[in-house]
Structures
1.
Amino acid sequence: MAILELADVSIAYGQRDAVKGISMQVSQGGITTLLGGNGAGKTTTLRAVSGLRPARAGTVTFDGRNITRVAAHRIVELGIAHCPEGRRVFPTLTVEENLTLGGFVHRSRPKEVKRTRDEAFELFPRLLERRSQLAGTLSGGEQQMLAIGRALMASPKLLLLDEPSLGLAPMLVQEIFRTIQEVNNRGVSVLLVEQNARQALRIADNAYVIETGRIRISGTAAELQGNEEVRAAYLGQAKQAAAAS
């Protein structure tokens, strides 16, 4: 069963279609990854799902409801949280203040804000240690933890993650991917855009490859791991084999 479905979705910037009639699904309770090069349309697709860049054509359905023309703030209330590329934390606010802003949908229920904030601190103990520290003074890895924690404050059914490992040291990358799996184990479906294709396919159930705004390859993560085209373009296996021969 799909919690999210895009059917023939096109997304334009001015007169140019950045995404050209794509169809894809995110399974209920699963992790789906969207792979592709720079400018392929990955971030634009996430922005269409979260209402930040409305689709020019096609339909976006979430949890059985058509959300193609629903405003971004209402989409959050319906259960989709978007953790953008580049973290986008509020640098002059503390860690705790950033998290509290993420819980805006619970603003009339202070106990719910506290509960979700405590869950974020449980998921990221390092944030608890730095709860009074300005977000702009955190390391890159800590800011990514904060960005994910802030998104989870909305108690989403579906979490959109855009390049969560970008610019992080290898040890932190491993930690971030373990956290994504933990979030998923807690019942949150995940749509993951990630430049680290190897790690993304390792934790995903299903995967899509988008090129110049069109879905080029799709299947289970295991199928894409074994696909020669994907291995050559995103996993570096063809280059490694050539160097060894």
Note: The beta strands are 2-13, 16-27, 31-35, 57-62, 65-66, 80-83, 158-162, 189-193, 206-211, 214-220.
2.
Amino acid sequence: MATQPGKQRLKGKVAVVTGAGRGIGRAEAMLLAAEGAKVVVNDLGTDMLGKGADQSVAGQVAAEIRAAGGEAVPNIDSVTTMEGGERIIKTAIDAFGRLDILINNAGAVRPKIIFHMTEDDWDSMMSVHLKGHFTTIRFASPVFREQKSGVIVNTASESGLGHFGQASYSAAKEGIVGLTRTIARDLGRYGVRCNAIRPRAATRLFDESVADAIERMRTTLGPTAAPAIDRSGLQNKPEHVAALVVWLCTDAAANVNGRTFVVGGDLVGIYAEPEPVRSLYREGGWDLDTLDRIASRDLIAGVTNEFLPR
């Protein structure tokens, strides 16, 4: 599909997109190019589990952008190492002389119930998602600080709010939200903004096969409070997610920093920042007796364990 010329909202800008060979990352890279940005298309070409490599994946997307009249170069480094993160950023500087936008999208998924999860299952998700965001930000941030400008968009997930059979993925993705809030504070004084999205779209990380795998895990437990898998996101296109991400990179969103968005299909939304919904104060602090007497009545009244077997 050829990239249609946009309004050139990002003309002259240089962007890095990790995991840009397929799905949401590819859609982001294509739209950035359509809006005038020069793009580094990073993708190691792994499978959905984060294994293997296909060096042609990034090159195919870069070639497609160039065929449509844009400017792009491929990069096949892994975000899971410091050396890889540095080379990804260096690719932008070497090819285009600058860096303005970093979109962290690379990821993988390994759905397993926690009592079946291996150390490698856990470490691989932390590595590609949470560390994978850190490695690129670490080397992009000095560039952004020096030029006193830059945009970072990170890819979190609604799984971070709690998702059956996805402990490692959920933990890594919600870690990205905390990382985003802190990067916004670290770099905001230099004119750099950092936001995150929780996307809903059909990709290799969430397709019918992944949904089926999670559903099989759920049913093997017998009667359970874990709800059936929500498959509504399988109807959403990556391009719908890319529109918000690229928009966050434009001047229209110049005042937005440290925030988290949900996007997919017809929906776009911004999350409230966390705060206690109910608070109690007691002079001298709390002990078990006063918690028994007061907290059960005034703090957790109406709270139920909704995850018990039905």
Note: DSSP finds eight helices and eight strands in the chain.
3.
Amino acid sequence: MAGFVRDILATLSYEPRPELPHAAGADLSRLDERLAGFVQGGARTRDTISIRPGDCSVWDGNPRDIPGLSAENCRSLIESIAQEDGNRIPVLVRINPPGADRPYELLVGSRRRFAVDWLNHNGRPEIRLNALIVDLSDEEAFRLADIENRERQDITELDRARSYQNAVDRFYGGVQSRMAEALNLSNSQLSRLLALAQMPDEVVNAFSTRDELRVRHSEVLTPLLRKPDQRERVLAAAKAIGAEQERLAASGERLIPTPTVLMQLKEAGLAGGSRTAREWPILSRGEKVGRVRPGRDGLTVELTVSEETDLDDLLIRLRATIQEKRDLAMGTAIADESA
């Protein structure tokens, strides 16, 4: 069994495979296909077991956000396992050391474990979790989980990046080049992911969902977060945007879209630069309807008001923006004069 899994580690490509037409099995990762083939090929050995989901703890080296799993986002998998009376594709577990609370540790297959556990608590207590016992080091388990998760759309770039940040110290002695070689990544690719992992929580919360924050966004924001004065302005803007996102979500309104969030954060960071860079958008219902910028004797306001514009909301946002940016613009002007 160990040889089979290490063969997977040696032969499975890390590159995303081409999109396949929708068909039975088209949503399987290549790791899934190999595991399914192993069992269907009659290789039921002492390493193949049926366990209860509660028999295994979940290894903390997997990047999947376990609390984020739900019946809604696992619905198709739950229905498939219910129809087949079990998971056709086995999960991978290893034996916990003596004295552990549970006999097994889950390495790969968090969604399958969740689905079986949900079914056990919702009318199908007889279904068991089919598993393969493997003997892998933590580093090998990390690489195997990474192979699977690269093809999963429900793993966010941020979750993957933060798992890499933890892994570079935990498994590779803090040497980024060693990790890049082990994962078949270029140093630049890994560096970009690790930069995303460093995004402050304030910035993460400014986006409508964690999935919206991508590597390409961190490439814009990271340079602004390196200088203390720019970082302070970016974080202040991020907190304000995050609070507005919460308000919009609570009232059922459309959240501020990602391009607008990125623009606001970038403009906040650049506000201490040239005068032409110091301008701030005015948002109404998440859409940009104008801007405020420093003028000769104060602030200059430009608005674009259409028939669809909510005037009451616009006036509230305009007042808040002017109050917030007036002090910032005045402070910057004083700094310019004293420089």
Note: The chain has three domains: 2-155, 156-198, 201-338.
